[in-house]
Every structure is written in C-alpha cells, then in structure tokens.
Amino acid sequence: VVSVVLSSSPQAATTSLSATGSALRRSFSHPSEAHRPDTGIGCTPDPNNVIANPGFESGTTNWSFYTNGQGSFTTSSPAYQCEWTSQITLSRVGSNMQLLQTGFLLNENGRYRLSFAATSSSGQDLRVYIHRHSSPYTSYGLDGELFDLTQDWQTFSTEFTSSGFSGTTADTRLRFWFTGLTSNGDVYWIDDVMLEEVDNPAA
Q: CB-based contacts of 82: which residues, under 8 Å, 6+ apart?
C-alpha cells in the first residue's frame, strides 16, 4: 500500500560527501519555503523511529552517499520540517547512486511503515529498498518500490512485512536509489524519514 500526500553538527550546512571528477552544472532552485507545509509536528525524533537522524538536523551523521559517477551529499535549508533537509546532487550519473543508512534494528515478520518527504529539481523519481547490508544483500521486504516525486514537497508512505531473516537483525540497509531515474545535474531533497514497526504478531 502506497500513499502520497501533496504539500504545497555545527557545520551542517556545509558538511558534504562528494565524488571526484570534473563538475557538470545545471541550474536549479531549492524547494521554496512557500511549498513547505506547517505540519505542527515538533522536531524531536519519534522514539518509535528506528532511523537515526531522520530529519538531518545533525547534518549528514548516520547517513552515507555513494556514487560511481559524480555527486555530493550535504544538508540545506529550508526543509520540509524543522531546519535542515538532505540535498543530493547528481552532477554526473553513474550505474550505482544511493543514499543509505545501515545498522538499524528489524524484527522478523514485523509489519513496518516507511514514510518520508521528498522533492526533486526536475520531478525525477526514486526507488526505495530495505535489505541486508552485507552480501548477498537479501531483500527484507521492501524491494525497489517506485515513488513519484515532483518539484514540490510531498510525503510518501508504504507498508511491508519484514522477511528474509530470523529473529532480530541489525545487518540492515535503507537505500534511496536514483540509478536509471535521473540525468546529469539533477538534485534531490529528502527529509523526515521514519521507519516504525506497526504490528508484530510474534511480540
């Protein structure tokens, strides 16, 4: 089930991870503050959220960015919620481009809900996976679901049942995947990432 809701560290703003190579530039505009909703939600992380630094208020801490093309990962403002959002710039596309977090806990056969806010400079989409962090990268129940982004902030939500492991595991990866969906110079903003267990029959 997928739902979409339309919505019109001290160096957090400059901390970035980037690949080497010559820069290819495309002009773009940051998502407008006018399109940011007044959610009325506080900026304190939800204790049920297994994702660390979900709103990027601590810069890029707990998150990693990888590309075999050229790109960068930093934080910027305004955000969807609170002060900061992630900003992923894909200067030159490659065959492996992902924003990821690893090491969060999942319970076997649990019912989970993933939600996040996102927008992109050209309305380009993204896919999301949750799988084993180490080889053979077994799917844990969310396997490349496609989300239809626009140039305005939207919130997205999907549910899945965890599988592919026994008991509890921290050999986990949440992967936002851009490969095959973007062009040189495209920019993504992702914010307010939440992964929570909503039901576990074994509990």
A: 43, 55, 57
Residues 127, 120: Cα–Cα separation, whole Å: 13
What is the radius of gyration, based on Cα positions, of the chain? 16
Q: Residue 38 — very low, low, confident or very high, per pLDDT cuts 50/70/90?
A: very low
Cβ atoms of 88 and 187 within 8 Å: the answer is: yes
Band of residue 31 on the pLDDT scale cut at 50, 70, 90: low
Instruction: Tell me the DSSP string of 75-122.
Output: EESS-SSSS-EEEEEEEE--S-EEEEEE---EETT-EEEEEEEEEETT
For residues 162 and 6, give the distance between their C-alpha atoms in angstroms, rounded to a whole number: 28
Q: Two tokens at 22?
A: 């010559």
- E strands present in the chain: 2-6, 16-18, 64-67, 70-76, 85-92, 97-102, 106-107, 111-120, 126-132, 139-147, 154-161, 168-169, 172-177, 186-199
> Cβ distance 138 to 76 under 8 Å?
no
Question: Whose structure tokens read 């710039």?
Answer: 89
**pLDDT tens figures, 128-176:** 999 999 999 999 999 999 999 999 999 999 999 999 999 999 999 999 9
pTM: 0.81
